[in-house]
Amino acid sequence: MAEASEKRTRRIAMAVDQSEWSEQAFEWFMENIYCEGDQVILLHVVEQPHLPFLADAMVIEEWKHEVQKIEEKLKVLEKKYIDRCKELKIAMRFKVEQGKPGEKICEMALKEKATLIVLGSRGSGLIRRTVLGSVSNYVIHHTKIPIILCPKDHL
């Protein structure tokens, strides 16, 4: 058993994207849950556009342009969170991977040995959630790591 004077470090895996819900979940967590000494790992998953199998030169150029836009948005997102963490005087790491968001968030949190996952929820309606799926729903049902889900109406 750990001694009372021994402080346990929490490893917080927080999924972030360009949405306002993600930013609101980050701010809510920082105001209500964050404790000095927590290790914050911001996770971002990029879904790369797929290049068609039989693409011509014009399609390839469009694909390259889309990839470039994604990379530019990623730089802006990373800078926003790095700057905000500096303002709050908290240490953090920003991790990026490609793939399906729900799957990658679960994988990254496990790899980082997270003790908690924090997600913002868009609060999609039933039809949209059924057709497109829900990242938060996927994570809730595919990880054994405790989760804080910040619904948009609560923030």
From TrEMBL:
Pfam families tied to this protein: Usp
Where would I find the UspA domain in this sequence?
10-150
Q: Which CDD domains match?
A: USP_At3g01520-like
Q: Which InterPro entries does this chain map to?
A: Rossmann-like_a/b/a_fold (IPR014729), Universal_stress_UspA (IPR006015), UspA (IPR006016)
Q: What is this protein called?
A: UspA domain-containing protein
Species of provenance? Desmophyllum pertusum
